[in-house]
């Protein structure tokens, strides 16, 4: 971990530690992975137009979201497969987030219950909600989220069925009993395999609190068959009626739904294509961000995820109007490579890069990041690059 100076270096360490099928499960996207690649390519297309004469001797990365001060505008996205990277999974991530004072949005399909994670973390936790198939259970789940001290709920809306993850199909990752190919790959990574098996044994230990909602990969398989994760406008209304805290929807990819979300009392959105893991062919998130920011017209907090790998990416998203960004795979690489310390390292790398980028851009505060600092983005009403 010492020699790793950026997210890509940490990704390489993760790749070395994990069996191929597991790395692919974290890394891969849906279908031809067009949207997965677009998320990255679109960030690279956007250019900076710095204002170098600004006074940036002192910089402040902090920001306020839903009235709460965050040390920086980077959150950890919900990922339901942390257990594949390391058995400490969400517990390690939540502890690293607390040490770094960043928000961790916990997934419904983690390896640990929401209470277990809350008990292990002194940090700021938000909850990502996949609705239980039986809507009668929503009330109970929302009460548990509130009782455990989670501060916001994000309902994920882009997963009525699982995306077409061809890497997983080819690797036979979900076969039960496990496919010999997967077992062989596991055996070739003994450190990972020992930890994985220990985690499975621990999970079955009698006396561990029950997990009424989540079962990671098992639940994923159910959802393919039953479409039970389909979320409708009525469901958003239902959650709104049960939850007093900040409510977000995660997975918005168009601006024309903002008015209705505001009418329903939603407080924020996460512009997200699930890291290219759901509908292949959708645009890069950074390309639809300006449209959604304009449509939200300050009535909604607009967060973004998908392809953020550098502090420069964070600055681009904020300049285009994002309130904050989330990262998914980067901290999973950290988790795989170094557990809790690995996650912390990823967060600190991104913090350092954002700080440096802001200085070089002439932005002393997050509020100083505005559209004049970038060009080449898809801003509604602006001439396209070919027309300029
Ligand atoms: C392995 C993996 C598991 C994920 N699980 C969830 C999940 O349980 N719920 C959810 O809303 N999003 C999930 N996501 C999507 C992330 O929250 C986030 O939208 C995405 O990872 C952002 O893109 P990035 O990985 O390029 O940063 C998952 C992503 C990955 C890579």
Describe the structure.
The protein contains 16 helices and twelve strands. The longest helix has 33 residues, at 329-361. The protein has a single domain (7-375), classed as Aldolase class I (TIM Barrel, Alpha-Beta Barrel), CATH 3.20.20. The strands form three sheets. The chain has an eight-stranded parallel beta sheet. Strands 1-12 form a two-stranded antiparallel ribbon. It has a two-stranded antiparallel sheet with strand order 2-3. Helix 5 crosses helix 6, helix 5 packs parallel to helix 16 and helix 15 (311-319) crosses helix 16 (329-361). The protein has 388 residues and is an alpha/beta fold. Strand 5, helix 6 (114-120) and strand 6 (125-129) form a beta-alpha-beta unit. The N and C termini lie far apart (45 Å). It has helices spanning 7-17, 20-27, 34-45, 82-85, 89-100, 114-120, 136-147, 166-171, 180-187, 190-203, 216-226, 233-242, 258-263, 285-296, 311-319, 329-361, and strands at 47-48, 63-65, 68-70, 74-76, 104-106, 125-129, 153-156, 247-252, 268-271, 301-305, 324-327, 374-375. It is globular, with a radius of gyration of 20 Å. The chain binds flavin mononucleotide. Flavin mononucleotide binds at residues 26, 39, 77-81, 107, 109, 128, 156, 250, 272, 274-275, 277, 305-308, 327-329.
